[in-house]
């Protein structure tokens, strides 16, 4: 491994790490506003606790995802691990988009996105 390649690998890792921690910092900074907009308005403390509960789930799922994607990367290669990771992210985003756009139940989101389309349209 040349020193130029090593620098590029280290820079890419640092950029990814900084972006991830920036995402967590922004979520933590706006936790009160997120709680006010997305959780019931009866109790401000419950709103904030719910927001930080979701924040904690993000921290708890990182090692689980690391184990799963790491295993896929070890057995099938980095390309398969990246494809799996992006596919899971895409499916989650697609479910949120379908649910918000069409106001359909979560269990139908995947079916809705994969339904057959008319070829005449």
Structure, explained:
With 121 residues, this protein is an all-alpha fold. The protein folds into 2 domains: 1-60; 77-116. Helices cover 82% and strands 0% of the residues. It contains 5 helices and no strands. The longest helix is centred in the middle third of the chain and has 33 residues, at 44-76. The chain is extended.
Structural class: mainly alpha
Number of strands: 0
Give the SSE order as H and E letters.
HHHHH
**Distance between the amino and carboxyl termini:** 53 Å
SSE layout and pairings?
Layout: H1 3-29, H2 31-38, H3 44-76, H4 78-102, H5 109-114
Name the descriptors:
121 residues; mainly alpha; 2 domains; 5 helices
Please give a quick description of this structure:
The protein has 121 residues and is mainly α.
